[in-house]
Amino acid sequence: MEGKNSGSADISPTSTEIALREQIPKPYEAFPSFDDFGGLDDEIDRLKDASVLFSHPEVCHEYGVRRPNGILLVGPSGVGKTELTRALARETESTLVEIKVSEVLSQWVGNANKSLSEIFKKAGGTEGPVILFFDEFDGFFSNEAGGNKGSATSLITEMKQILSNLQQLYPNVLVVGATNSTAGFDPALLRPGRFDVMLQIGKPNEDARREIFGKKISAHFELYRFSTSGTGDEINIDNLAGATEDMSGADIDAILNSVRTAKALQRIRTGEHTRICQADVLRAIRLHREQRLNAAD
């Protein structure tokens, strides 16, 4: 797609419209790449296919291929839906506009359809490709969407119409939605030509967790203790993968970040530098589990 930009265009609403922080465009250069993910090879392959088609509309036209209008990512919190969308923006060199549906709907009472249309118009008027990311997409199907059930139905109809005509109206725009579940969705919204790609993003299995640990530890390899002496305190990724059953990539990232933070604070306060060992990470895993259990109570 021609006219790719750095994501600096101002397509956020004015103060008289929907001046929300989530709608400030974000530059793609700082986003993760698909190579940073572990255990999502099939899902990433499909996202890469979608990105290539989105970025080459002239070839799609030549072959009579419909490029995707919408991508829906379905899965529990913490599995990486937002980060995958950011990686997609980096892959396509797109301006990314992140919109948390639950927050914007409270601003749209009595004016939902006009506000939704305005977001697409601003994105469509931006130079270069734009990804509109609607987080908590299921919020559109709440009876409270737009103020009441009638407004919610009207808002869904508006979204369906925009998606059906997206390539004609706003050829530089790709829509990505994220949701925990499609229960209650209007089936017509999920048909081809609207959301052409729907991916289930689940929590990683043990092999995937092993890959995630490997990539995240490799990014800071010099901070970890690896030894062939058999002392028992060296990092054992197989053991860590087994100890994090039912945890997401976000959980693993939080665990390793907490360990690195503790070591950084130790270095600042005492000047002492010690490498991260297996016991450090296992302790952080236990604490993280306890925090999750306490939060669930």
Structure description:
The chain has two domains: 17-200, P-loop containing nucleotide triphosphate hydrolases (Rossmann fold); 206-296, Helicase, Ruva Protein, domain 3 (Orthogonal Bundle). By secondary structure, it is an alpha/beta fold. The protein has helices at 41-55, 57-63, 81-92, 101-105, 112-124, 149-164, 166-169, 206-218, 237-243, 249-270, 278-296; strands at residues 70-74, 95-100, 130-135, 173-179, 195-200. Helix content is 45%, strand content 10%. Helix 10 crosses helix 11. The N and C termini lie far apart (49 Å). The radius of gyration is 22 Å and the shape is elongated. Strands 2-3-4-1-5 form a five-stranded parallel sheet.
How is the topology of this model organized?
Elements: H1 41-55, H2 57-63, E1 70-74, H3 81-92, E2 95-100, H4 101-105, H5 112-124, E3 130-135, H6 149-164, H7 166-169, E4 173-179, E5 195-200, H8 206-218, H9 237-243, H10 249-270, H11 278-296
Parallel strand pairs: 1-4, 1-5, 2-3, 3-4
Helix pairs in contact: 1-3, 5-6, 8-9, 8-10, 10-11
Q: Which parts are unreliable, with pLDDT below 50 for 5 consecutive residues or more?
A: 1-22, 143-147
Number of strands: 5
Give the strand order, joined by hyphens, for the main sheet: 2-3-4-1-5
Helix and strand pattern: HHEHEHHEHHEEHHHH
Largest sheet properties: 5 strands, parallel
Average pLDDT figure = 84
For this structure, the CATH topology of the largest domain is Rossmann fold
Corresponding CATH architecture of the largest domain = 3-Layer(aba) Sandwich
Write down the overall geometry: elongated
Determine the structural class based on helices, strands and strand pairing.
Answer: alpha/beta
Through-space gap between termini = 49 Å
